Amino acid sequence: MFTILFPKKTSLWLSLLLGFAVSVGAQSQAYSDGNAAQLSDKDKAKLLKLKTAIAVPTYIPAGFQLDNVSVETQPSAPGVYSYFLKYNNTKGKSFTSFTIQAANDGIGSVDMQKEIKGRNPYFEGTIVVGLDEDKSVFAEWIGSKPQFQPKGTKYQMFYSLSTAALSRQEVLKIMQSLRYLKK
């Protein structure tokens, strides 16, 4: 075994280059083409028209299919957006679903019990998942991070998930899988 010695200036440049490569790698992992979220080209175009940070899941539990993508805008308040991704599971005895919701205005908090927590490095805030007063599973809102928002997006968005069909652990896994939709 042998060791290669570099002059101090070379070591500095190698360290900077390695740091840049790691940063670029982390940056590229913050994005998704929308395929794992089961988005059609039409769905992608509808979402990207909003010109805001669109987050989509890269993990969908087995048996669930994207059922509906809906977008809401406020003509009286330009720049106020929301969208919903609804996934259904029709396998088994009963119909179940979950909805990922996103908004940049009018979000609220929910009182929860039996919370579990996690993080997603591409979004602001701690992911808090618990049971609401109806015993449905709810993930508190997390926000887009400006340094990861796609170029040309103007507004910070907040993302949440609600369901009566999944466990808290499954909801946490979905929220941790959120990535920004590439343009």
Structural class: alpha+beta
Q: How big a fraction of the residues is strand?
A: 25-35%
Compute the gyration radius: what is it? 19 Å
Please outline the major beta sheet: 8 strands, antiparallel
Unreliable stretches: 10-25
Provide the residue-averaged pLDDT. 81
Total DSSP helices:
3
* Head-to-tail CA distance between termini: 47 Å
Helix coverage percent of residues?
A: 10-25%
Shape field: globular
Count of DSSP strands: 11
Q: What is the string of SSEs from the N terminus onward?
A: HEHEEEEEEEEEHE
Salient structural properties:
eight-stranded antiparallel beta sheet; 3 helices; 33% strand; globular; alpha+beta; 183 residues; single chain; three-stranded mixed beta sheet
Descriptive report:
With 183 residues, the protein is α+β, with helices and mostly antiparallel strands. Helices cover 21% and strands 33% of the residues. It has helices at residues 8-28, 41-48, 168-176, and strands spanning 31-32, 55-56, 65-73, 81-89, 96-103, 113-118, 123-124, 127-131, 137-144, 158-163, 179-181. Strands 3, 4, 5, 6, 7, 8, 9 and 10 form an eight-stranded antiparallel beta sheet that branches. Strands 1-11-2 form a three-stranded mixed beta sheet, with no helix packed on it. 28% of the residues are buried. Mean pLDDT is 81; it is low at 10-25.
